[in-house]
């Protein structure tokens, strides 16, 4: 069985980060390996503290996993430290056969910038060019192009398509620009792989209990689908359906505290390897 690897931070509330990634991997029938890049003290109301994992320990985790487990795809989450990014890029760059989903987590829901200028430059120089696909939202796409996020611009499919094409031209990877920042009844994500432009439109779920961790979940689900041998276009569709179902089935776990659920449809179990 092909495994999946997440290189991301831990969410103590179990909503986003590594915890969300493992939930997605397991839903799609994939064993999940983990490399923790940060520890956070957080819940759906905010992040109280962040402890960055030293680069040498990140390297040790990667060395323990890569080359031992049969990893078909990996995804990265928020990587706020340039030294950590350099370490990660150096290790995963030795494995061109592993599909790489890079989620450039750079801007919080509040609009606050989450990464330093040095980390941003390291990601642009080292990680993005080796990606199978990157999954920025609209403000992150603009940041990767060296622009300030234009909150006044319309968050529509045309704008997302323009950004996806520019990012592909600059970094050479496939680009999925997420359209969740729009205000319309339909959320449209745009995928450009260098040849074909595809739109993925789903009706927004009104007043969801939770959307915390949707970006992490989407990138992890894409990785899980790629590890299963799906084409990128089909992997994105499967991941979109997964996240939409997770939002639709989100539920309360405390006062004012909601978490993502799981889609009602569970994929068929993968074939079990048999020894001869």
How would you describe what is shown here?
The chain is α/β, with parallel strands linked by helices. It has one domain (3-259): 3-Layer(aba) Sandwich (UDP-N-acetylmuramoyl-L-alanine:D-glutamate ligase), CATH 3.40.1190. It is 35% helix and 24% strand. The protein is built from eight helices and eleven strands. It has helices at 17-27, 55-65, 82-92, 117-127, 138-144, 157-171, 214-227, 232-248; strands spanning 3-11, 32-43, 46-52, 71-76, 99-102, 133-134, 174-177, 186-192, 197-203, 251-254, 257-259. Strands 3-2-1-4-5-6-7-8-9 form a nine-stranded mixed β-sheet, with helices on both faces. Strands 10-11 form a two-stranded antiparallel sheet. β5 (99-102), α4 (117-127) and β6 form a beta-alpha-beta unit. The longest helix has 17 residues, at 232-248. It is globular and about 45 Å long. The chain starts with a strand and ends in a 17-residue tail after the last strand.
CATH class category: Alpha Beta
What is the global morphology? globular
Main beta-sheet strand count, sense and barrel state: 9 strands, mixed
Please name the CATH topology.
UDP-N-acetylmuramoyl-L-alanine:D-glutamate ligase
> What are the low-pLDDT stretches, counting only 5+ consecutive residues below 50?
271-276
Short description:
The protein has 276 residues and is an alpha/beta fold. It has helices at 17-27, 55-65, 82-92, 117-127, 138-144, 157-171, 214-227, 232-248, and strands at residues 3-11, 32-43, 46-52, 71-76, 99-102, 133-134, 174-177, 186-192, 197-203, 251-254, 257-259.
């Amino acid at each position: 069985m092909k495994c999946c690897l997440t290189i991301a931070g831990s969410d103590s509330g179990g909503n986003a980060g590594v915890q969300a990634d493992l939930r997605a991997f397991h839903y799609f029938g994939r064993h999940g390996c983990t490399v923790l890049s940060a520890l956070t003290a957080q819940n759906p109301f905010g992040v109280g503290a962040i402890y960055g994992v030293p680069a040498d320990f990140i390297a040790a985790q990667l060395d323990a996993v890569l080359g031992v487990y049969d990893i078909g795809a990996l995804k990265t989450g928020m990587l706020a430290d340039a030294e950590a990014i350099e370490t990660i890029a150096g290790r995963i760059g030795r494995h061109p056969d592993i599909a790489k989903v890079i989620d450039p987590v750079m801007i919080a829901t509040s609009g606050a910038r989450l990464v330093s200028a040095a980390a941003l430059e390291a990601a642009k120089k080292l990680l993005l060019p080796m990606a199978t696909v990157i999954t920025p939202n609209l403000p992150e796409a603009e940041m990767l192009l060296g622009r300030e996020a234009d909150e006044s611009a319309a968050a529509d499919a045309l704008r997302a398509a323009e950004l996806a094409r520019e990012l592909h031209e600059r970094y050479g990877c496939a680009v999925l620009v997420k359209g969740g920042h729009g205000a319309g009844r339909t959320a449209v994500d745009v995928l450009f792989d260098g040849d074909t432009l595809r739109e993925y439109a789903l009706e927004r779920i009104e007043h969801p209990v939770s959307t915390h961790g949707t970006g992490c979940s989407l990138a992890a689900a894409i990785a899980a689908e790629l590890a299963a041998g799906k084409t990128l276009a089909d992997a994105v569709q499967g991941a979109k359906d997964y996240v939409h179902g997770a939002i639709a089935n989100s539920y309360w776990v405390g006062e004012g505290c909601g978490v993502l659920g799981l889609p009602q449809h569970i994929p068929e179990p993968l074939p079990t390897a048999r020894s001869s």
